[in-house]
Amino acid sequence: MISRRVASENPDRLYTVTGGRSHTDESSMDMVTLIVSECDPTPGMQSEHVKILQMCRQPMAVVEVSSELKLPISVVRILLCDLLDTGRITARHPPKAPAKAQLPNPEILEQVLVGLQNL
Amino acid sequence: MPAHIPVHRRALLVPLAVAIVAGTACVWAVAEAPVEGRTLMAWSLGTAAVLLCAAITFGLYGRQQTQQLRDRLQAMDADVAQLADQTLPALVKRLRDGASVDTALAEVHRPADLAQQRILWTLAQEVGRGDRMRAAAMSACANAAGRVQALATSMLADLREMEDRHDEKVLGDLLRLDHSTAQAGRLADSIAVLTGARSGRRWTKPIVMESIMRGAVGRISAYQRVRVHSASTVAIAGHAAEGVMHALAELMDNATSFSPPSEEVHVYVEEVSTGVVITIEDCGLVMSAVALSRARQAVSSEPLDLTTLSGTRLGLAVVGCLARKHDLTVSFRPSSRGGTGVVVMIPQKLVTQPPPLPAPDPPRPPSVPAARRAPSTAVAAPAPAERVADGDLPRRRRGQTLAAATSTTAAAEPKPPARDRPKPSLSDAGARFSAFRQASRGTGGGATPADTPDVSAEDDTL
Asked: How many domains does chain A have?
């Protein structure tokens, strides 16, 4: 099992990807925030940034970016924050879930649940 | 005296002649002398003649002895000179080349002198023992280094997996551990290189320059002070990648440790027609002429002499070994930034083009609706495979998704049953085989790399 993991590895350690940072103060970005790139990659950019900019020409969720890059979400968030700070991407929250008032009453939901269980 | 008369007869001849001459002179003198003093004279002359003969005989004998001793001494001198100038160096050379003590002794010229033979034997024994000790120490070190290397490699893989699994609360700690492990691995690599063992791990694919630089930077303690300026897109052949990374890491470590902690070390990567040139510049102290020549000596093409190792500074010796192994050219010069600049030239034969990327761009069009539809990780996973398996192999994609999604948090809707089926039947070989068959049926062809791990992972757990 170990050998397989070792074989698929590459020499990049995550702390070199993030420059030693392990978290970001940016709290606005969560897993489903949609990312859109605002410019094309320039030569000399970090390869992850290039990939993000290429991927996000169409809006893409943070979690998808993470899966594409095969990097942990926290690392991707750091990378995205770098790009966000330099204005190369914009982050957009998915359409908000309907406001609480519009949600069915929890009691009704509970009744539905009970009813379903009784079936 | 005639030359053909042997020495011992010559030694007799002279006293004999003296005796005859002295005897004749005595007889004549006695005959000439008046009669009354004849007896006394005869006695005294006789005594004098005998004394003369004896003196001459002893004198001659002594001279002969001296000559003999001198000759012997000369012969011995020549013997000793031969022992010192030819026999011993030849013996030591044979021993160093790996011959056993007896073989080496049999092959060299054996001196006639017994004492010299004893000297030769004792020396051969001692040199042989010293060599054996050195070899044993080296192999022990190499072995230990190899084990530490293997441990470090698997620890790094484990850590990488944990980094994927845990969120950012733990990530910082994991990254610190990762960094320490990488440095420990470099130390083990250094010892392995110096002891002549195989160096580190071997990459099976070409490694792109960015990863090479990251791999090198990640192994030094002050990695945050290194600024890499690279727009290079080439890759380094897999068999040399580890060596190049290690050499660069040692040089960067030198640069960071010999410059003030507030200063950055700048690394420039440049592609030239003969290969890739990497320049590492620091703003630290300028190396003295002695240090510079020592550094040049360490990285020159002369084979490593372990006696020149200082014990604490192994870096340049390691760089030298790696440079010789991979034909890297390392040169030092004063840096324009005020410190020392190291220029590493990677020859063209180690430079290749990077392996084709798994096409990050193509998956976009199909993934857009998917991205909109659900914030689930599982949907994103199939995207890269989609384009690879073109057209009539949609099932292969699905199988890959299944395998890939096992590590992600959320599983898509069709997966749980597929995953659940093999699980309860872990102990049942038949059920496992059916799971395997189903997986391969799903792929519509030979088992993909993504499928195989799934099955073997279950094997491992048993």
From this structure: 1
Would residue B105 count as lying in a domain?
A: no
0.85 surpassed by complex ipTM = no
| Probe site for chain B from A1, A6, A16 (most B CB atoms < 10 A) | A16
Count of domains in chain B? Answer: 3
CA distance A47 to A13: 14
Which residue range forms the structural domain that includes residue B433? Answer: 369-461
User: Which domain, by its residues, includes A91?
Assistant: 2-118
The answer to the question of residue B31 being in a domain is yes
Test A63 with B380 for CB contact under 8 angstroms: yes
How far is B395 from A14, CA to CA, in rounded Å? 33
Among candidates B214, B245, B371 on the partner chain, residue whose Cβ is nearest the Cβ of A60: B371
Can you spell out the DSSP letters for B271-338? EETTEEEEEEE--SPPPPHHHHHHHHHHTSSSPP-GGG--SS--HHHHHHHHHHHHT-EEEEEE-TTS
- Whether the CB-CB separation of B397 and B408 falls below 8 Å is answered with no
Q: Is residue B359 part of a domain?
A: no
Chain B contacts of A20, Cβ < 8 Å? 175, 223-224
pLDDT tens per residue, range B333-354: 888 878 889 999 999 999 988 8
